[in-house]
Design goal:
6 helices, globular, 79% helix, AhpD-like, mainly alpha
Length: 118
């Protein structure tokens, strides 16, 4: 049975494929802009992953949280660094962020176990 994070990846990819199967230029440009925004610029892409994570937690988007957690782990952040960023998110967002912090903690446990196995 696949882990919920693996199901998230598959569902996200399938949804992106369907969303991008369009002639709508606005949709295609938005997806492209998102990809460009998280690339290196005045801030490196690694830093932007933590910014995206904090924003996603404050906005309470679990899919976005998982996306940025995966990026943060791939970028080389350790658990202590990610936990500190999530603490900032909770401070900014308040106690309503706690359920999303729980979600993030479960996802992060999976990502680090997967990362150490590879």
């Amino acid at each position: 049975m696949p882990h919920p994070f693996e199901e998230f990846r598959a569902k996200r990819q399938a949804g992106n494929d369907k969303a991008l199967d369009t002639e709508n230029l606005l949709t295609k440009r938005f997806f492209s802009l998102d990809k460009q925004a998280y690339g290196d610029g005045a801030l490196d892409s690694k830093t932007k992953e933590l910014l995206g994570l904090v924003a996603s937690m404050v906005l309470r988007c679990n899919d976005c949280i998982d996306y940025h957690l995966e990026g943060a782990v791939k970028a080389g952040y350790n658990k202590q660094e990610i936990d500190e960023a999530m603490g900032v998110a909770m401070l900014v967002g308040g106690s309503i962020v706690i359920p999303h912090l729980r979600h993030a903690a479960e996802s992060l446990e999976f990502l680090f176990s997967e990362h150490s196995a590879s």
